[in-house]
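Subject: Predicted fold for DNA-binding response regulator, 201 residues

User T.R. writes:
Posting the sequence so we have a shared reference for the thread.
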Amino acid sequence: MITVLLAEDVYMVRGAFLALFGQESDIDVVADLGDSNEILPAARLHRPDVAVIDIDMPGQEDLSVVQKIHDELPETRTLILTNHWRPTIVRRALNMRVGGFLLKDSPPEKLVSTVRDLAAGHRVIDADLAVSAWQAPTPPLTERQLEVLRLAAAGEDVPDIAARLNLSPGTIRNYLTSVTTKLNARTRMDAVRIAVDAGWL
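User M.O. replies:
I've generated the structure tokens; pasting them so everyone works from the same file.
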């Protein structure tokens, strides 16, 4: 029996996934979650074979929960689902060696077969996603700079970002200044706009 953790914040979509998996005699959904904060505790509790995670859930854009699952539960394979892929997210997921990465408009049977493939130790990445990610221009920002800019784009101020990343406010200001300079932006919000337009955030 393949045990699955399912994380999807849209109730109707989660219900459709549950119904789909419920038709399969070899798949057992041990946790279905609508809150991204519940993913890691549930993964620790159930230790599923496969964690199916909607990366578009609030709070999941930086893939941090996926990294924590890989670090703490290496036996759990991760399958990332998304509606709106961004090259940097796909690239990070590939570098992180996620088990699978699929668009949510993939055929239902593809989701089921991918879960089985992951449980068997294989890796399944949507070919179009992989090719597009590697062909997209590499952002001139470091992962840390992207992380700081992502938090700034979400409306967090310098002290909040510093507290979240365990850095000093001065260090965060330096990161934001470097980002603005690298992107030839006029302001911090202009840097956010440039990064969003380029698909980096």
